[in-house]
């Protein structure tokens, strides 16, 4: 392992990082932009993977909680409640450090981060999907039944599409929180944006310049995502209004 | 008074209710209802709010289960198994007071959905049939509209077309015009009258007394989960034999 790859949670605490004068030097950003850009690539990859995986898992959990047999619903409720009560940071660190001890197989940091963030975010997705379905009035189900549709057909063709439209704003916040949450993967040395920034700041003693740049990058990614979803929602909201 | 013969009285009835009872908790919604509906008849159910009219319709296509008694459809009691129930429901169209169109589907898709998901018709064939049905209810130019972009009367006509798509043997209407603006009530009643003239068997819960009077072959007056009186519209509206029927009608402003 090279020095850069070792997990270092507390390296920012050293006094050497505090500049004595307020002169700014952006040359580390220019010199090492590829290094930061590779971090951004990892951040985006982890974000997209985590969003996709947590929506798939969240959908399954949400439907299982609503329509599953009794013996399935109890553990699902327990899972949702515990994920909402435990910080994602703790989940991630637990998976990275405990799973290898329990199973004898070690996780690559990226996979540990993906699994940790996914099982955390999926619990919220499950709750949002459940709330969306529950909010649809009973007449819609009756209309489907009256046509001779089966329960699964009604869930798939009538309830879920409307629930997803209704919950777009909530999904927008979940997506932005997920992207933000990927930053904590830095603690298990996933070479994503935050991790690369920390490394660079430690090497160049330019934390203000580098972390300011990182803040701007996160903002530039997330702000349009939430705005686009809100825009999209205002255009399609009527599709979920029964 | 001369004896009144009901339409198609010589043929087996489409629907027969025998002493149907239904409770919600301690509340008796249907308290021993017996009646029948012949082929091609338009039966109007009238009665005060909460008297069990909607409940009877929902028990007809098994959206509600009954506690005792029997509902026979085309000679057979309603089945218990889910797959069999679904087959029966396909033979009964239902129209709701609040339309219950699917908001994420266009008018055309709303009409076609039963054909594609339940009948497994190819999309092309389903679409053709849906187009023809929308034309029939006077909405040939609205096929691409979403429900949000249709007036109440238009939405209800789409809902009628959606129910007709399954080629039902009987249509159940639950106050189809109660949620409509007065100016659009007529367009929906016209579609229903045309349907009646084509010989569709219909049960219509309605507060539109003029429709009941002009179109119904048989009128059933409900009160507190029981039949108060039933008879041809002339009898119910002109010479009700039960005093409470007279009270109910005059309460609605129906005075001869
Ligand atoms: N799911 C239910 N749970 C409990 N009570 C119910 C339920 N559905 C209906 N009821 C009660 O049963 C009674 C009959 O209801 P129903 O809807 O059949 O009346 P209605 O004759 O259709 O009245 P309206 O003209 O207001 O539609 C009402 O008092 C109602 O409150
Ligand atoms: Mg009713």
What attributes does this structure have?
heterodimer, A: 242 residues, mainly alpha, MetI-like fold, 0% strand, flat, B: 256 residues, alpha/beta, Rossmann fold, 6-stranded mixed β-sheet, 4-stranded antiparallel β-sheet, 9 helices, 10 strands, 23% strand, globular, binds adenosine-5'-triphosphate, binds magnesium ion
What does this structure look like?
The complex is a heterodimer of chains A (242) and B (256). With 242 residues, chain A is an all-alpha fold. Chain A is 74% helix and 0% strand. In chain A, helix 4 crosses helix 5 (109-134), helix 6 packs antiparallel against helix 7 (151-166) and helix 8 runs antiparallel to helix 10. The longest helix of chain A has 35 residues, at 33-67. The N and C termini of chain A lie far apart (58 Å). Chain B has two domains: 12-91 and 168-256, P-loop containing nucleotide triphosphate hydrolases (Rossmann fold, 3-Layer(aba) Sandwich), CATH 3.40.50.300; 101-167, no CATH class. Chain B is globular, with a radius of gyration of 18 Å. The chains are: A mainly alpha (242), B alpha/beta (256). The A-B interface holds A 139-140, 142-143, 145-150, 153, 157-158, 161-162, 165, 238-242 and B 58, 61, 63, 82, 86-87, 89-90, 92-94, 96, 98, 100-104, 113-114, 117-118, 146, 148, 159, 162-163, 166. The complex binds adenosine-5'-triphosphate and magnesium ion (MG). The site of magnesium ion has 4 residues of chain B, from helix 1. Adenosine-5'-triphosphate (ATP) binds next to strand 2 and helix 1 of chain B.
Blueprint of the fold:
The complex is a heterodimer of chains A (242) and B (256).
Chain A: H1 27-31, H2 33-67, H3 70-85, H4 88-103, H5 109-134, H6 138-146, H7 151-166, H8 168-181, H9 193-204, H10 207-236
Helix pairs in contact in A: 2-3, 2-5, 2-8, 2-9, 3-5, 4-5, 5-7, 5-8, 6-7, 8-10, 9-10
Chain B: E1 15-24, E2 27-37, E3 42-46, H1 53-60, E4 68-73, E5 76-77, H2 82-90, E6 92-95, H3 107-118, H4 123-136, H5 152-164, E7 170-174, H6 182-197, E8 201-205, H7 209-215, E9 218-223, E10 226-231, H8 233-238, H9 243-251
Parallel strand pairs in B: 3-8, 3-9, 6-7, 7-8
Antiparallel strand pairs in B: 1-2, 1-4, 4-5, 9-10
Helix pairs in contact in B: 3-4, 3-5, 4-5, 5-6
Bound molecules: adenosine-5'-triphosphate and magnesium ion.
């Amino acid at each position: 392992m090279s020095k850069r790859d070792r997990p270092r949670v507390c390296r920012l605490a050293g006094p050497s990082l505090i500049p004595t004068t307020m002169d700014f030097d952006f040359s580390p950003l220019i010199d090492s932009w590829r290094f930061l850009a590779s971090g951004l690539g990892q951040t985006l990859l982890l974000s997209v993977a985590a969003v996709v995986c947590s929506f798939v898992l969240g959908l399954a959990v949400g439907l299982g909680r609503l329509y599953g047999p009794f013996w399935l619903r109890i553990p699902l409720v327990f899972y949702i409640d515990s994920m909402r009560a435990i910080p994602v940071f703790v989940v991630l660190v637990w998976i990275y450090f405990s799973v290898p001890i329990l199973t004898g197989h070690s996780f690559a940091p990226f996979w540990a981060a993906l699994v940790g963030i996914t099982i955390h975010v999926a619990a919220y997705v499950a709750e949002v999907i459940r709330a969306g379905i529950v909010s649809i009035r009973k007449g819609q189900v009756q209309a489907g039944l009256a046509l001779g549709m089966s329960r699964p057909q009604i869930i798939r063709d009538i309830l879920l599409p409307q629930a997803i439209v209704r919950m777009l704003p909530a999904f927008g916040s979940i997506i932005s929180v997920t992207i933000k949450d990927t930053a904590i993967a830095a603690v298990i040395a996933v070479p994503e944006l935050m991790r690369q920034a920390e490394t660079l700041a430690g090497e160049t003693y330019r934390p203000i310049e580098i972390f300011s740049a990182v803040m701007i990058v996160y903002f530039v990614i997330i702000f349009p995502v939430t705005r686009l979803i809100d825009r999209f929602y205002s255009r399609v909201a009527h599709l979920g209004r029964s | 008074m001369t004896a009144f013969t009901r339409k198609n009285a010589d043929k087996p009835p489409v629907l027969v209710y025998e002493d149907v009872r239904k409770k919600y908790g301690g509340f008796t919604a249907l308290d021993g209802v017996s009646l029948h509906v012949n082929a091609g008849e338009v039966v109007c159910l009238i009665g005060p709010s909460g008297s069990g009219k909607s409940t009877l319709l929902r028990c007809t296509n098994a959206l509600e289960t009954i506690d005792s008694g029997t509902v026979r459809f085309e000679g057979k009691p309603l089945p218990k198994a889910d797959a069999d129930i679904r087959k029966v429901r396909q033979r009964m169209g239902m129209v709701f007071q609040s339309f219950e169109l699917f908001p994420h589907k266009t008018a055309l898709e709303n009409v076609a959905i039963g054909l594609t998901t339940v009948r497994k018709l190819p999309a092309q064939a389903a679409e053709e049939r849906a187009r023809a049905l929308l034309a029939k209810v006077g909405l040939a130019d609205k096929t691409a509209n979403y429900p949000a972009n249709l007036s109440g009367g238009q939405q209800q006509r789409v809902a009628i077309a959606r129910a007709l798509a399954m080629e039902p043997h009987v249509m159940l209407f639950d106050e189809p015009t109660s949620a409509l603006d007065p100016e659009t009530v007529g367009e929906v009643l016209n579609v229903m009258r045309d349907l009646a003239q084509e010989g569709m068997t219909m049960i219509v819960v309605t507060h539109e007394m003029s429709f009941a009077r002009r179109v119904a072959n048989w009128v059933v007056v409900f009160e507190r989960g029981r039949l108060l009186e039933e008879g041809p519209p002339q009898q119910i509206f002109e010479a009700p034999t039960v005093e409470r029927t007279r009270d109910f009608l005059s309460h609605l402003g129906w005075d001869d």
